[in-house]
Task: inverse folding
């Protein structure tokens, strides 16, 4: 690499940093005031892109950018006042889930409005050429972007320090109660901040269109990049977002420049890991105030009553009899339900009793699936062995990622788990030669004695019921009690000799192993796997199952998994935009039953 | 015999010097009261002693062994029990389970994956609860207890690993005056009976003067007086800074 090409890569990085900064700054601002981590922030960015492309054809690029940003800002205001405002007092988890439901809805809206193909944007009039820097060509537009980022930073700084509104925003960021005591009209402040954050995201997207086509995949990749930026820079710090955006964008630029684009994610991961180990709250972040609890305190865990055990045994017997009376389609659906029941129970294991809110649990499901598939196809292992050892990939992934995750809590943990899942997804998605890239792997069929639907159903029933029973048993064991203790009061747990991190790490790994088992079973039941099996939407499916059933109950995830899998099956076949339907259902459920279905039923019909 | 010896402890938070050069020691069987107005640095001292905070300067020895760099859980294993000013219990567990948790940890059974936790150490847990007068409420969820009762549960939990040093941060807050005397009497019996060293903070001066063997007075992070209750009562600096503000 010559000096001049190093310089060019550096400038490339600076240009990308600007958009990234806009998104991350918006995310940080919104979090600072409303304490909500907006998972839909990448979707706002995506909207900004599409709206700008669409408008650009009609009114020209330079008009389209501010108008697109304003439109996205207005959309943000609408979302805040119609939806989020009702959730400020709700448990953190539900807020996150609600913003994720928005991701689904916005994605399908974009699909409906602009179609599935990537759309190339116009070039920016006045900046269409290139300048020669150190003997190499560099786009003029990128120079414009390089200047624009610091300009926005300066404008934000002026806004926050020199205006009355900015003073209120800072006051609310530091101390909500104080701000309300000062007589701040909170409603308008919150709406305003959300609109500003959305505006910044939309602006970031709109400004990007001369460089990149608008695509439906951008939402999650941008939001996970923004999460990395915010985790590195410190949540709530605009300056931190600027520095971290610069850092991350430069890393990307140099990896790509060196022809090592496949290592981008690895390097990004290493940087984030190092920062987290040295400064858990980011370079410029402060330790967050204690996270709010997950709603009402859970009642003590009682041993299952004989009647409940009988009911479970009866359910098991009924499930064992299904192949006798029914075949084909029912078995396929039930196999899916069983697999996702194990997945949901493993997620509940860490989310409920251990209090670790993971937004990336599908990573371990997918790693288990790919582990099994790769063992079979690449290592030539017999199917039985692949099914047995594949899940270890999930466990191993959870072991590595978990080490970092248990160092954080609350929204930081949620962001980190999502970022890890996105990294795992990207690696699988990009590594064509080994994982089959976006096409995935095909030909993952069970051994001949398991080839019939009924036989595979039985092995699934056996494994999933066994796995679920083991996980439940652990919750009644000292280990499970210790997990709940560490969740209820880390302070007290530490003061009576519990190694909180070690316990949580072990739980995370066990849950990863169980999710990996579910993934491996899933791979052989379908005969193929695609990167979708470890995508973020799959993680959110798991969350919905757990929350649908009610996080405070042990059997909740079972019912949640059954209902959701069935619903998805029924809806996905009938409706084109089923993700949006699921998103809408989540929103309705979150608004109507903040304690989950079982929690709701229990409250409603409690004696 | 000196159980705990702290020398020249200092700790500041940003600009606030919460503890400045405090030295104190507690002998086995002794009840030492740490008193001082709000914000004097008492809780911060406790946090330094049980490893929750690292001191900026100073040394702490427990039974002759330096506690430098040890985590609270390690210090607990050495034999230091603690209760918190703002009670910290496991809200999703019953009173008995809270104590069982400490017993399970004491017996190093936390990594057991398949045993039934609720059936372990039941008798031992109930015996501890009996001592603090919480036996009748053993089956109730901690989340529904009155504040004074939570303080008792904390005491039972702190006693579960047979500590040789007990740190109690405002153990009687939230209790009726009569109950306060009883609880402190229990602590005094423990100290004298089993030779436990007890260090406690307390805002109720009647309780302090009735039960403490010795008193250490903090003001603005500094140790301004120490001695027997009579000496401290008579100390002019204490009257000015502490009693004066209350009388
Ligand atoms: N974590 C912290 N961060 C910043 N300042 C702190 C922290 N903990 C304590 N302080 C400050 O240190 C000083 C001493 O506080 P500390 O809680 O030790 O007092 P205290 O004697 O226990 O008071 P009280 O009788 O009200 O319990 C106070 O000024 C307090 O504001
Ligand atoms: Mg205190």
Result:
């Amino acid at each position: 690499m010559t000096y001049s090409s190093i310089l060019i890569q550096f400038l490339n990085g600076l240009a990308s940093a600007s958009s990234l900064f806009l998104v991350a700054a918006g995310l940080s601002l919104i979090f600072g005031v409303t304490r909500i981590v907006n998972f839909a922030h990448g979707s706002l960015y995506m909207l900004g892109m599409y709206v700008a492309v669409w408008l650009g054809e009609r009114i020209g690029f330079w008009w389209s950018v501010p108008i697109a940003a304003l439109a996205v800002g207005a959309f943000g205001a609408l979302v805040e006042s119609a939806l989020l405002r009702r959730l400020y007092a709700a448990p953190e988890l539900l807020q996150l889930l609600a913003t994720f439901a928005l991701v689904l809805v916005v994605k399908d809206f974009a699909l409906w409005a602009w179609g599935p193909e990537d759309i190339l944007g116009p070039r920016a009039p006045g900046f269409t050429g290139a300048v020669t820097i150190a003997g190499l060509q560099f786009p003029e537009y990128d120079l414009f972007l390089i200047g624009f980022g610091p300009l926005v930073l300066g404008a934000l700084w002026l806004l926050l320090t020199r205006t009355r509104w900015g003073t209120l925003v800072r006051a609310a960021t530091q101390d909500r109660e104080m701000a309300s005591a000062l007589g701040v009209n909170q409603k308008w402040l919150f709406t305003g901040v959300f609109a500003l954050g959305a505006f910044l995201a939309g602006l970031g997207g709109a400004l990007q269109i001369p460089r990149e086509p608008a695509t439906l995949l951008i939402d999650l990749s941008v939001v996970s990049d923004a999460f990395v930026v915010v985790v590195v820079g410190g949540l709530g710090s605009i300056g931190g977002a600027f520095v971290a955006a610069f850092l991350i964008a430069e890393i990307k630029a140099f990896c790509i420049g060196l022809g090592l684009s496949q290592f981008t994610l690895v390097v990004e991961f290493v940087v984030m890991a190092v920062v987290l180990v040295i400064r858990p709250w980011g370079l410029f972040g402060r330790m967050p105030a204690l996270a709010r609890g997950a709603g009402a305190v859970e009642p003590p865990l009682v041993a299952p009553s004989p009647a409940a055990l009988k009911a479970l045994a009866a359910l098991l017997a009924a499930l064992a009899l299904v192949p006798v009376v029914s075949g084909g389609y029912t078995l396929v659906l039930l196999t899916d339900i069983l697999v996702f029941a194990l997945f949901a129970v493993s997620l509940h294991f860490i989310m409920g009793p251990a209090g670790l809110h993971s937004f990336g649990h599908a990573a371990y499901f997918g790693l288990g699936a790919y582990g099994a598939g790769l063992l079979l196809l690449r290592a030539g292992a017999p199917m039985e062995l692949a099914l047995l050892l594949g899940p270890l990939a999930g466990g191993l992934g959870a072991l590595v990622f978990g080490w970092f995750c248990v160092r954080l809590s609350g929204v930081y943990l949620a962001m980190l788990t999502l970022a890890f899942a996105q990294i795992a997804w990207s690696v699988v998605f990009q590594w064509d030669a080994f994982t089959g890239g976006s096409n995935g792997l095909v030909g993952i069929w069970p051994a001949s004695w398991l080839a019939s639907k009924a036989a595979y159903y039985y092995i699934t029933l056996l494994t999933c019921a066994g796995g679920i029973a083991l996980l439940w048993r652990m919750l009644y064991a000292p280990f499970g009690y210790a997990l709940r203790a560490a969740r209820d009061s880390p302070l007290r747990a530490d003061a009576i000799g519990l190694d909180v991190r070690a316990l949580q790490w072990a739980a995370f790994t066990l849950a990863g192993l169980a999710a990996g088992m579910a993934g491996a079973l899933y791979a052989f039941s379908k005969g193929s796997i695609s990167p979708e099996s470890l995508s973020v939407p799959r993680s959110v499916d798991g969350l919905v199952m757990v929350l649908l059933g009610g996080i405070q109950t042990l059997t909740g995830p079972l019912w949640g998994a059954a209902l959701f899998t069935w619903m998805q099956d029924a809806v996905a076949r009938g409706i084109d935009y089923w993700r949006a339907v699921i998103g809408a259902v989540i929103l309705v459920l979150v608004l109507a039953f903040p304690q989950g279905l079982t929690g709701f039923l229990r409250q409603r019909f409690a004696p | 015999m000196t159980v705990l010896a702290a020398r020249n402890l200092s700790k500041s938070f940003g600009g606030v010097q919460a503890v400045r050069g405090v030295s104190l020691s507690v002998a086995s069987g002794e009840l030492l009261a740490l008193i001082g107005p709000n914000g004097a640095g008492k809780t911060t001292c406790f946090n330094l002693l049980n490893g929750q905070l690292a001191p900026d300067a100073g040394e702490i020895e427990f039974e002759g062994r330096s506690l430098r760099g040890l985590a609270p859980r390690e210090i607990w294993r050495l034999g230091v029990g603690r209760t918190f000013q703002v009670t910290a219990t496991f809200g999703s567990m019953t009173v008995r389970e809270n104590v069982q948790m400490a017993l399970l940890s004491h017996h190093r059974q936390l990594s057991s994956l398949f045993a039934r936790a609720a059936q372990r150490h039941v008798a031992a847990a109930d015996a501890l609860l009996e001592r603090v007068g919480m036996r009748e409420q053993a089956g109730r969820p901690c989340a529904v207890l009155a504040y004074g009762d939570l303080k008792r549960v904390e005491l039972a939990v702190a006693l579960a690993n047979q500590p040789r040093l007990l740190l109690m941060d405002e153990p009687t807050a939230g209790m009726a005056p009569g109950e306060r005397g009883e609880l402190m009497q229990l602590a005094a019996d423990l100290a004298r009976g089993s030779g436990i060293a007890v260090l406690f903070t307390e805002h109720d001066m009647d309780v302090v003067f009735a039960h403490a063997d010795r008193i250490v007075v903090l003001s603005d992070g500094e140790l301004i007086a120490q001695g027997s209750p009579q000496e401290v009562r008579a100390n002019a600096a204490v009257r000015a800074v502490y009693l004066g503000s209350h009388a």
